[in-house]
Amino acid sequence: EVQLQACGGGLVQPGGLLRLSCAASGFTFSAFAMSWIRQVPGQGAEWVSGINSVGSTSSYADSVKGRFTISRDNAKNTVYLEMNNLKPEDTAVYYCTKGPSSAIATMDYLDYWGQGTQVTVSS
Fold it and tell me: CB–CB of 21/5 below 8 Å?
């Protein structure tokens, strides 16, 4: 059974930083690309960032480019999202997701989502 356990969310002031982690199990982690998605209740989900299976390629939404960094540790079956210079508009539930192959996938093709972790940016 695929399991994606995200953690690291919380309340942070504008300009602050958070590091999200996602522990994966139930599949060969090193063979699949991973992505982070975020969603505000009542709004559509937004793809935030993705990383390929070996960690050599990453991609970001324009809204977070230059502020967020995705990485992975295949020895620990864990993917990370480091978020710097956080803004109130980054407030959302962040989901760790698995792609169907080694290449970064668009949101329509993600096949497993974790339970999400809440990030709130507010003074």
Answer: no
Q: Say how far apart CA 112 and CA 106 lie, in whole Å.
A: 13
The 10s digit of each residue's pLDDT in 37-82 is 999 989 999 999 999 999 999 999 999 999 999 999 999 999 999 9
Q: For the chain, give the DSSP string.
A: --EEEEE--EEE-TT--EEEEEEEESS-GGGS-EEEEEE-TTS-EEEEEEE-TTSS-EEE-TTTTTTEEEEEETTTTEEEEEE-S--GGG-EEEEEEE-SSSS---GGG--EE---EEEEE--
Nearest to 67 by CA among 18, 121, 22, 103: 18
Q: Hey, what amino acid is at 10?
A: G
Burial of 87 (0-12, 13-18, 19+ CB in 10 A): middle
Q: Which one, of 38, 49, 44, lies nearest residue 99 by Cα?
A: 49
